Amino acid sequence: QTLLQESGPGLVKPSETLSLTCSVFGYSITSGYHWGWIRQTPGKGLEWIGSNHQGRTSYYNPSLESRVTISVDTTKNQLSLRLTSVTAADTAVYYCARDYDDYAWVIWGQGTQVTVSS
Amino acid sequence: QTVVTQEPSFSVSPGGTVTLTCGLRSGSVSTAYYPSWYQQTPGQAPRTLIHNTNARSFGVPDRFSGSILGSKAALTITGAQADDESDYYCALYLSGGAPHWVFGGGTKLTVL
After folding, report:
1. How many distinct helices (H) and strands (E) make up chain B?
2. Helix, strand, coil proportions of chain A in percent (round to 5)?
């Protein structure tokens, strides 16, 4: 059974960098699939931030691409997210997720709340 | 920028049937977008219901079904139950250029 667990600071100051980690248990990131970050702003819907394919190539939401970096630490089997120059609009629950062969996000972490505030 | 459209809200009577749709502001949804559907209740992570247009995820009751209706993807709930009251999101996979995903704004379903 594959489990995903997000971790990171719950509070980030405006203009600083948000950094989150997703620990993956039960499956090696480099063995396959896309591994992604998806967020949900308060009272609003889901937004795909970006994803990494099999520990190799990363892809980003065009609206966030200039501020986002997604990387993989293969030694720790972790997926990481860095979002620079954050504002209040980046306050959200951040989920990591894994897709299936047909591009659906089928495994989700429990999510982690990140608030941007001074 | 690709915009995925969903009805903001919908209501259904217990035991009734409801169809939620997932469209594109410009263009038609087809199986090539690998539409998927997610159910979310407050405070919980999304749960995958449907993948690849009409494949039910493991453990999803067969009262949930997915399809393409005209120019949109559709999620039909047959015999709605009280605990189907949730937010429902669709997602489309776009493979032109760099692959990426776009979620719809979600539909809040009320069962009453």
Report:
1. 0, 11
2. 5, 55, 40
Task: Give every CB contact of residue A15 below 8 A, 6+ residues apart in sequence.
Answer: A85, A86, A87
Q: CB distance from A27 to chain B under 8 Å?
A: no
Contact A16, A8 (CB under 8 A): no
CB count in 10 Å sphere of residue A92: 22
Close Cβ partners of B28 (under 8 Å, ≥ 6 residues apart): B70, B71, B72
For the stretch A69-118, pLDDT in tens is 999 999 999 999 999 999 999 999 999 999 988 899 999 999 999 999 99
Strand partners, B65: B76
Tens-place pLDDT, residues B44-93: 999 999 999 999 999 999 999 999 999 999 999 999 999 999 999 999 99
Q: Which amino acid is at A38?
A: I
Query: How far is residue B64's CA from residue A94's CA, in Å, rounded to a whole number?
Result: 27
Find chain A residues with C-beta within 8 A of B48's C-beta: 104-106, 108
Alpha-carbon span B96 to B102, nearest angstrom: 13
B36–A105 CB contact, under 8 Å: yes
